[in-house]
Amino acid sequence: MDSKKLAGEKAVEFVEDDMIVGLGTGSTVYWTILKLAERIKEGLKINGVPTSKDTEQLAIKLGIPLVDLSVLSKVDLAIDGADEVNPNLALIKGGGGALLREKMIASISEKFIIVADGSKFVQSLGTFPLPIEVIPFGWELTKKQIEKIGPINPILRLKNNTPFITDNGNYILDCYMKSIEKPEDLTVQLNMIPGVVENGLFVNMCDFAIIAGNNDTIEIKYGC
Ligand SMILES: O=C(CO)[C@H](O)[C@H](O)COP(=O)(O)O
What we know:
The protein is α/β, with parallel strands linked by helices. The protein is about 25% helix and about 25% strand. Ribulose-5-phosphate (5RP) binds near residues 24 and 82.
């Protein structure tokens, strides 16, 4: 079976009746959402909170009941994908540009589960470019401020030769680094820069990661 499908579907085993479930974004959690919809048709009672407009549309299409974030103060369980996961379960997210809403929902979740194929598990973060969401106003200045931190090489994300716009109306700077030795320090440094809305480092947030390898193997990884 496709590793993304295997990991994505496995996460549904942790969903229980009456939970508020954060619905992540991307091609792995897509399988989680499909499986959840199946379970709902069989009688599972949950409400979902989508982390992006794409996920919201998918959930509506599949008949998953949704609840608005404005009426919530916590989420029981959030399930999402990741671009990189290290052995401490620090993550890079935001390859799909949904990092801000994903982090907001993960931050109020009692449990936060990552689903990923084996290629996402790395010893050190940073091979995947780190996405940073910035406001369009003065983004060039924000980029210069980010560059002062070190050799981070932020590049404006483009789509069809124009800036990629997030669901929140912002831009993304993708940062090309050799490796990120101290993600907990970098996330603080980045978020202190005015103009930075959020960055794609998720540190000390993930409870466990469901990693699917080749030959239909699944490993549940807890931070070390
Ligand atoms: O952070 C994300 C979107 O902002 C995704 O979770 C991440 O990019 C992984 O996506 P995929 O499962 O398609 O590889």
